[in-house]
Write a structure and sequence with these properties.
By secondary structure, the chain is mostly helical. The chain has 2 domains: about 1-180 and about 430-450, Serine Threonine Protein Phosphatase 5, Tetratricopeptide repeat, CATH 1.25.40; about 205-420, Serine Threonine Protein Phosphatase 5, Tetratricopeptide repeat. Helix content is about 50%, strand content about 5%. The chain contains 21 helices and 8 strands. The protein has a two-stranded antiparallel ribbon. A hairpin with a 4-residue loop joins β6 and β7 (about 330). The protein starts with 10 loop residues before the first helix and ends in a 10-residue tail after the last helix.
Length: about 475
């Protein structure tokens, strides 16, 4: 969110950008309008309006925080927690690993600025659609999709930075010196956006995992409720996704991250980036094939690898290894195509999947004292991984032991996916307990990232997070 007039006066240029991004998507088969068209004309035409919405999805494939590469939430939050370690001298990465992030850290700025750029694009689309002459049903559906994306981005911003500016318009005069909103207020807006989306997307095709539908919205809403300790609603909404959606857990773990995955609720295709690459950025960044270097600067922590039982199929299929001249490095191997520019994109970046919904419901049920229900959910994940069921191994399991088991399964199931471990430690209030013994420079204030220096300079109403 760069507070300059230039960045807040390109309503017309924004739409041109979105349309240009969409132009790389041959599979959409949407004819683009003349790019001299003005903003409102774009949203008065069904095809160009759909192109603009698709352009925002496409931008997620390029936005630093979401793209899955070196400066993404997946990588940086994995380093902040205890899932990833640096393998080469990479100062920006090492600051996240050591939880000593400076306010000048370039990757931190990339996360912040790219997230707010998506939010600005969402705001511009909502404003355009609110004045559209298209049929009300079409307008509501497109507003629903954009509202979902905005809620998704705000979810990550508020969990990484705490109090943040709540930007809901494209008016640079308002946005330039907007103060921070409380975490509670941001969550109110997230839920409001998700309710708008849920009501509007009842008819969107759930089999198209590249666009939002009612189950995509409910999947994120269930997570939001979990993070707010709203156990009853987290259980109820995750149940709707589990029972009413067409998604199913893949029996074969090698199928989970494919473009054809039955488990996928929301994915991002590498084609959406428009670069010609057919591989995910996660695979290209994580997989170590020849040597450890600046292109592969991180690996899995030995602590995480040791957490897996040797018979755990997730270790066998989702953890790769590379042995150099002196050391063996382990890396995430959920995505297996490191590089591809011909053929088809066989893997899509996973954003939301059904396994998380079982883990959400298991945790919510545990908090409400429903041990049998929680065990049943957790065993869905364990037995799929080739582990024995808790129901048979420990039929009298206590609530504390079950809580610990859920935490371990979340680590083993969701590692290097969108920073789950980092956000889990923070919402559980266990960052000090877990990370202080591992990280000599750890301080309690490290659980929030700093607001980038440039943003504080540009906006005098921003207050830097404690400890920076």
């Amino acid at each position: 969110m760069k507070h300059t007039k230039k960045n807040y006066t390109y309503r017309v240029l924004l739409v041109f950008l979105l349309l240009g991004l969409t132009a790389c998507e041959d599979y959409l088969e949407i004819d683009l309008p003349d790019n001299r068209i003005i903003n409102q004309q774009v949203f008065n035409n069904e095809q160009s309006a759909q192109s603009a919405i698709q352009g925002i999805y496409n931008q997620l494939a390029n936005a630093f925080f979401a793209a899955g590469g070196t400066n993404s939430v997946t990588v940086l939050a994995g380093l902040s927690a205890d899932h990833l370690i640096t393998t080469v001298n990479s100062q920006n990465h090492q600051q996240f690993e050591q939880n000593e992030i400076t306010i000048q850290n370039a990757y931190n700025y990339d996360v912040w600025s790219s997230a707010y750029q998506i939010i600005y694009q969402c705001n511009a689309a909502i404003e355009g659609l609110q004045n559209s002459t298209l049929p009300q049903g079409s307008v509501e559906a497109m507003v629903g999709e954009v509202s979902f994306i905005r809620a998704f981005v705000y979810f990550y911003l508020v969990n990484m930075y705490g109090e943040i500016p709540l930007v809901l318009s494209t008016d640079y005069r308002i946005n330039a010196d907007l103060p921070q909103s409380s975490v509670a207020k941001v969550y109110i807006q997230i839920i409001e956006d998700l309710f708008v989306a849920k009501d509007a997307l009842q008819n969107n095709n759930p089999e198209n995992t590249l666009r939002a539908n009612v189950f995509t919205v409910q999947a994120l809403l269930a997570r939001v409720y979990l993070y707010q300790n709203n156990w009853a609603d987290a259980e109820a909404v995750s149940t709707q996704v589990i029972q009413n959606s067409p998604y199913q857990l893949e029996e074969d773990l090698d199928q989970v991250f494919l473009s054809t995955s039955n488990e996928a609720i929301w994915q991002i295709s590498p084609i959406q980036a428009g670069s010609g690459a057919l591989h995910t950025r996660e695979s290209n960044f994580f997989i170590i094939e020849e040597q450890v270097n600046s292109l592969t600067p991180v690996s899995l922590s030995t602590q995480l690898v040791a957490l897996f039982n040797p018979t755990d199929q997730r270790k066998q299929k989702w953890v790769g290894s590379f042995t150099g001249t002196q050391n063996t490095f382990f890396y995430p191997y959920k995505y297996k195509v490191k590089y591809a520019t011909t053929g088809e994109a066989t893997e899509y970046s996973m954003v939301l999947r059904l396994a998380e919904q079982y883990l959400i419901r298991a945790e919510a049920r545990t908090k409400m004292g429903d041990v049998n229900g929680a065990v049943a959910d957790l065993d869905q994940i364990r037995t799929r991984a080739g582990l024995g069921s808790i129901a048979s191994l420990n039929p009298s399991i206590t609530l504390p032991a079950l809580t610990d088991s859920i935490a371990k399964e979340r680590r083993r199931e969701l590692f290097t996916e969108w920073g789950h471990r980092w956000l889990d430690l923070k919402r559980w209030g266990t960052t000090d307990e877990v990370l202080a013994p591992q990280k000599s420079l750890w301080e309690a204030t490290d659980q929030l990232y700093p607001i980038p220096e440039q943003e504080v300079i540009n906006n005098p109403n921003l207050t830097q997070n404690p400890g920076y």
